[in-house]
Design a protein that fits this description.
heterodimer, A: 285 residues, mainly alpha, 75% helix, disordered C terminus, B: 170 residues, Rna Polymerase Sigma Factor, Chain: A, Arc Repressor Mutant, subunit A, 2 domains, 9 helices, 81% helix, globular
Chain lengths: 285, 170
């Protein structure tokens, strides 16, 4: 029944059309428009070469500029790449910290990306400290600078976390946990590095002490040898001509005992001088 | 070139004979105004010819005609909305008389058919007319309404259900 009604409806709707008069009038109007507006012929104009065109035109210049830019980009990229392994004190280290790292920071737009970037920087600074220590090039000044950089990055990470916390507290909580873990790892690493530095210092001190002791022992030996020589000389020949001595000549009118005593004092003094001089020598490990 | 132009003119004339009634019906159902529907039908064909004369490629002339008609109807409704009732009254436009006149001009053979189809949502009404009155394919309807064929099929199914319910209640 419904189907029949539907077909009837469609049939009735189809009957709604223009009358033959309406149709012919409209067609007349439309076809008049068609005849008055024929298909447009598209004229393809040939390319005309500019009379001002020459071999020095912009086409060539733009190519040269392109090549120059490519060279500059590749050059910067090469220097930047080479600076990646630079350490404080190296010529390329400022390129690493002032250009490469600044660019990386600039292209880190979201707080999450900034946190990741700062973590990488902290890792790099720790690695640099270790490398410098291994190369025996870590000065107190460099150590302070590297530590300050690590502290600054950690502060910035905390600021970024605060930003994330405003929008997505759950993500911020996760990042905070990660950061705390990283801090523990970094602290352990810093402690080990400090221990390493202290061990090196202790070793230096020990070596210095050992060297000084060696020098003192040597001096003492020399002193003893000299004293022994004098005793032997005194025993064998009391009439030694001290004027032939290469060191300091003694007065001729002195008694042999007095000369011996004076010579002993001089020897002691020389020994002391040697000891003092040896202490000044820089100790190389 | 002239021969090509002649061929196209002939094809276009034939297209008018074949599709003008369907376009008129479509415009009439969308505007409920016979005179306006006649004008929109003429405009649809002239606009389409302008498109052809401009050298643009056409895949389906029938679908293009519906699309042009649809755009013209949208423009008409937009303009109608813009001219406020106050300004029309100021110009001496008698709303009640005009509406009455429109009513009398809607001289459908079957008033009930018009009422039933008007009870459908606009989207469903267009689709039912295109599919069952003008015998357009689902692909052509999809192209005219810029929708996916699957969506059109689903809409046809829903529109039929609604229409059958309307007819059942009568």
């Amino acid at each position: 029944m419904k189907e029949e009604k539907f077909n009837n409806l469609i049939h009735k709707i189809k009957e709604n059309k223009m009358t033959s008069l309406e149709k012919s009038i409209t067609k007349h109007n439309v076809m008049s428009f068609v005849h008055n507006n024929p298909i447009a012929v598209k004229k393809v104009s040939p390319k005309v070469k500019s009379p001002y065109y020459s071999s020095f035109s912009f086409g060539h210049i733009s190519k040269l500029v392109g090549v120059a830019m490519l060279i500059v980009v590749l050059g910067i990229g090469g220097i930047s790449g080479a600076s990646a392994s630079a350490l404080p004190g190296d010529a390329l280290y400022p390129v690493k910290t002032n250009i490469k790292e600044k660019i990386e920071e600039a292209i880190s737009f979201t707080p999450e990306a900034k946190i990741a970037y700062r973590k990488r920087i902290i890792e790099t600074r720790l690695q640099e400290t270790e490398d410098l220590l291994n190369l025996n090039k870590l000065t107190p000044q460099t150590q302070i600078e590297l530590n300050t950089n690590i502290e600054n990055q950690t502060k910035e990470i905390k600021n970024n976390l605060a930003e994330i916390k405003k929008v997505r507290p759950d993500v911020a909580k996760f990042q905070e946990q990660e950061l705390n873990q990283d801090i523990v790892i970094h602290r352990t690493r810093i402690d080990k590095l400090l221990e390493k530095i202290q061990n090196k210092d202790t070793k230096i001190e020990k070596n210095t002490l050992k060297t000084n002791n060696n020098i003192e022992t040597k001096v003492q030996e020399i002193k003893n040898i000299k004293i022994d020589n004098h005793v032997i000389k005194q025993n064998l020949n009391t009439n030694i001509d001290y004027s032939s001595n290469t060191s300091k000549s003694l007065p001729k009118d002195l008694a042999p005992e007095e000369k011996l005593l004076l010579r002993k004092n001089q020897t002691d003094k020389t020994a002391k001088e040697i000891k003092i001089d040896q202490k000044i020598i820089p100790v190389k490990l | 070139m002239e021969a090509k132009n002649e061929n196209l003119t002939e094809s276009f004339s034939k297209a008018y004979d074949d599709f003008s009634d369907a376009i008129f019906r479509y415009c009439h159902y969308k505007t409920s105004n016979r005179e306006l529907a006649l004008d929109l039908t003429a405009d649809t064909f002239t606009k389409t010819w302008e498109y052809i004369a401009d050298g643009k490629k056409i895949d389906n002339l029938r679908a293009l005609l519906y699309r042009v008609a649809n755009n013209l109807i949208i423009d008409y409704h937009r303009k109608k909305k813009e001219s406020s009732l106050d300004s029309l009254t100021e110009q001496g436009f008698d709303i009640s008389t005009e509406n009455t006149k429109e009513k009398y001009e809607d001289n459908f053979d079957n008033k009930k058919a018009m009422e039933a189809i008007q009870e459908l949502d606009e989207n469903y009404r267009d689709i039912i007319i295109m599919r069952y009155v003008d015998d357009l394919s689902i692909k052509e309807i999809a192209k005219i309404l810029n929708e996916k064929e699957n969506n059109i099929s689903v809409k046809i199914h829903r529109a039929l259900d609604k229409l059958k319910k309307i007819l059942g209640e009568e």
